[in-house]
Design goal:
Elements (H helix, E strand, L loop, with lengths): L1 H29 L2 E5 L6 H14 L16 H20 L5 H4 L4 E5 L6 H17 L3 E4 L6 H14 L3 E4 L8 H10 L3 E4 L10 E3 L3 H20 L11 E4 L5 H14 L3 E6 L2 H13 L4 H6 L1 E4 L7 H5 L12 H18 L13 H4 L3
Parallel strand pairs: 1-7, 1-8, 2-3, 2-4, 4-5, 5-6, 8-9
Length: 364
């Protein structure tokens, strides 16, 4: 009799454990989660994108227009205006350093972030089109495969090749400050785009508003989640935010994206830091056995231009709220800054915090 009772008790305990496990699994399945992917966190671009998304999804208002990202101190502007004249006038006046003054065709070294994704390929295409076709200048592309050390080495090579200027999208804001040091020593102007370096030498830094783009993505996700779960939902508490990734190489981050999704099957929204991460999470979802309906129900937003996963785009897996500019939108101003500098000197350089416009900075 005791053995029978013991068996019944044991059976009851096993049954209870199964019920508890099943209910836990169901609860985990239903727990809504936001997945935030990250590019390399050592870059100014990623810091701004991530901060903007978090502020937007948590309901913080967009800062006033004149202080959206940084509020430039008038004293800093005055310091910059004085420094740029002292630093760059010798380059402008030198026939050796100024190709337009010397009457020769400028030779530009292009050092991009160098990832084989649509963003960087559009940048490259835009640069080659505007530099070669529109301006008629010579150029050489120095592709570093997103390796900061390699990019520094390629900058040395570009200087030895005799480039008149460098257009730079650094792989690392700190490590590639070395390029500013090298260029300053060689008397070669640098214009950065998309990502800055921690060095004073660049003539200009041409940037999209990464913070605002991230904020609009976050705001869009917030609005959609409130529509789905009601106005009392507490994002960050009822719907936690799980972040993953520390690289512009989405393929390298794929195992981590998949692991995060496996641990959080209730993902309802994804912030894609670039198109490659769209492909990563959609592929992970399919590998994990998610249905097409579940994938399509995810609120996917992307601050980068153009999806890698064409199948996902055609079938409606995305719901973008704020696209990034294409390559020429950033690269044309970089090259025009150089042209205006060589033609008119340091006074023609954009002011700190200015919005680049054709009317103002390309008067002809």
């Amino acid at each position: 009799m005791k053995k029978v009772r013991s068996g019944i008790v044991l059976f009851a305990l096993v049954l209870l454990l199964c019920v508890l496990l099943a209910s836990f699994g169901a609860e985990a399945e239903e727990k809504p989660v936001i997945l935030q992917t990250h590019g390399y966190r050592g870059t100014t671009s990623e810091v701004l994108r991530a901060a903007g998304f978090l502020d937007g999804v948590m309901g913080k208002p967009l800062p006033p227009d004149k202080a959206k990202v940084i509020d430039v101190d008038p004293e800093d502007i005055e310091t910059w205006n004085t420094w740029k004249v002292e630093a760059y006038t010798p380059l402008f006046e030198s026939a050796e350093k100024n190709p337009i003054k010397a009457g020769r065709v400028p030779f530009i070294g292009y050092l991009p972030l160098s990832i084989y994704n649509p963003w960087d390929m559009l940048n490259k295409d835009g640069f080659e089109w505007y530099c070669g076709k529109v301006l008629g200048w010579k150029y050489k592309v120095y592709w570093c495969d997103a390796d900061p050390k390699k990019q520094n080495d390629l900058a040395v090579m570009a200087i030895r090749d005799g480039v008149d200027a460098i257009v730079l999208d650094p792989a690392d804001s700190v490590a590639n400050s070395k390029i500013g040091e090298l260029a300053q020593k060689a008397g070669i102007p640098v214009v950065c785009f998309a990502i800055d370096i921690f060095h004073p030498w660049p003539l200009a830094f041409v940037q999209r508003d990464d913070y605002e783009s991230g904020w609009y993505c976050g705001k869009y996700v917030r609005d959609k989640l409130i529509e789905r779960f009601g106005p009392d939902i507490k994002i960050g508490i009822d719907i936690p935010i799980v972040d993953v990734g520390n690289s512009w190489d989405a393929e390298a981050e794929f195992p981590y994206v998949k692991a995060a999704m496996a641990a959080n099957p209730g993902i309802v929204a994804v912030f894609e830091v670039m198109g490659g991460y769209h492909e990563a999470w959609v592929r992970a979802a399919k590998d994990l056995g998610w249905s097409e309906e579940k994938i399509k129900d995810v609120i996917a937003v992307d601050v980068d231009f153009f999806p890698v996963n064409i199948d996902g785009y055609i079938n409606g897996y995305q719901d973008y709220c704020h696209m990034m500019p294409t390559g020429p939108d950033l690269l044309a101003p970089c090259l025009e800054v150089l042209k205006q500098f060589w033609k008119y000197g340091p006074e023609a350089l954009p002011q700190m915090g200015d919005i680049f416009t054709v009317e103002k900075y390309i008067p002809e």
